[in-house]
UniProtKB/TrEMBL annotation:
The chain crosses the membrane at residues 45-74. PANTHER family: MONOACYLGLYCEROL_DIACYLGLYCEROL O-ACYLTRANSFERASE, TRANSMEMBRANE PROTEIN 68. One of its GO terms (molecular function) is acyltransferase activity. It comes from the Eukaryota. Pfam families: Acyltransferase (PF01553). The keyword Transmembrane helix applies. InterPro entries: Plipid/glycerol_acylTrfase (IPR002123). One of its GO terms (cellular component) is membrane. It comes from Austrofundulus limnaeus. This is DGAT1/2-independent enzyme synthesizing storage lipids isoform X6.
Length: 333
């Protein structure tokens, strides 16, 4: 009936405008746009009904966010005297301490972050800190913040070249003494009495390691040679549940191929789960003039592996790591 009506409308059109109106109506019926309009009306009704419910649930969530922001502010305010002193000494000292307090507050709120063995970090003098690299090394940022707050020191860090190519990162890297890692520059930092943090696994370990926590160091020995040339102790470090906080899809063949072929670290990372983080520092490995770089590298790798075996349940489990925020018992030290 609708088709015959449209045909009569088209045949009976007296002018161009009437003909176009009839033609549009015929096309509208043929395309089913009348049903689309019904669906849109139904969606409009659903929005009208459910918008108040959505708002009712969002507002309490916003209140929780405000409460956490308030806690973060209190973390900063609690250390206001330290901040005043830091800003009086040097502008960048004050900026570093402010950011350290903010990161420390974030770690405490979101991950219940703890450091075990901070006394092994010297109050003065150099040391090389070697750590396992998570998909996103947010645990290392928390550790750096704790070194600034508890030790009053800035730990220099070695980072991959691609970080220096990210727009806007230059100032941040300069203020926190991040270097791209030539051995000569690392040795210079240590001989000047600084702490230096490095992950031999680097981007490869970040992207391609998984919840079984393999160390992907290959035959890298440069960090060991740096320690020998600088005559400094090496302190192994590992953070429990770091792989449960963030996971990488780098184990997929495509992303592995892109990295190996073009050195593109583009494997997607997901997570941000509020799992329990505990950073463990192992006993310092002292300088020994009779130890070769290969021997020292092997010894450091075994030390980091030992920390993983002692403090991480393998394979890692996100749900278990979330429960550990409440149930605080962990593997024996």
């Amino acid at each position: 009936m609708a088709d015959s009506g449209n045909q009569s409308c088209l045949l009976g059109s007296q002018d161009t405008v009437s003909f176009m109106v009839c033609l549009f109506r015929a096309w509208e019926e043929w395309a089913g746009l009348e049903q689309v309009e019904d669906y849109l009306s139904f969606l409009e009704y659903l929005l009208w009904v459910f918008t108040p419910l959505i708002i009712v649930f969002i507002v309490p969530f916003l209140i929780v966010i405000l409460l956490y922001l308030s806690i973060l502010f209190l973390h900063v305010y609690k250390r206001k005297n330290q901040l005043k002193e830091a800003y009086c000494n040097n502008l960048w000292d004050g900026a570093r301490k402010t950011l350290a307090i903010l990161w420390d507050g974030h770690g405490a709120i979101w991950h219940g972050y703890e450091v075990h063995g901070m006394e092994k970090i010297p109050d003065k003098g150099p040391a090389l800190i070697v750590y396992y690299h998570g998909a996103i090394p947010i645990d290392y940022y928390y550790f750096l913040a704790n070194v600034i707050i508890q030790k009053g020191r800035t730990c220099h860090s070695v980072a991959d070249h691609f970080l220096f190519k990210i727009p806007g990162f230059k100032l941040l890297l300069e203020v926190f003494s991040v270097i791209h890692g030539p051995q000569e520059e690392c040795v210079r930092a240590l001989k000047n009495g600084h702490l230096l943090g490095i992950s031999p696994g680097g981007v490869r370990e970040a992207l391609f390691s998984d919840e079984t926590y393999p160390l992907l160091w290959g035959k890298r020995r440069g960090f060991a040679q740096v320690a020998i040339d600088s005559q400094v102790p090496v302190i192994p470090m590992f953070t429990q549940n770091v792989r449960e906080g963030f996971r990488s899809l780098g184990t997929l063949r495509l992303f592995r191929w892109l990295y190996e072929r073009f050195r593109l670290p583009i494997a997607p990372v997901y997570g941000g789960f509020p799992v329990k983080f505990r950073t463990f520092l192992g006993d310092p490995i002292p300088y020994d003039p009779n130890t070769t770089a290969a021997e020292l590298a092997e010894r450091v790798q075994q030390a980091v592996r030992s920390l993983i075996d002692r403090h991480q349940k393998i394979p890692g489990c996100i749900l278990r790591a979330l429960v550990e925020r409440i149930y605080t018992k962990h593997k024996n030290n």
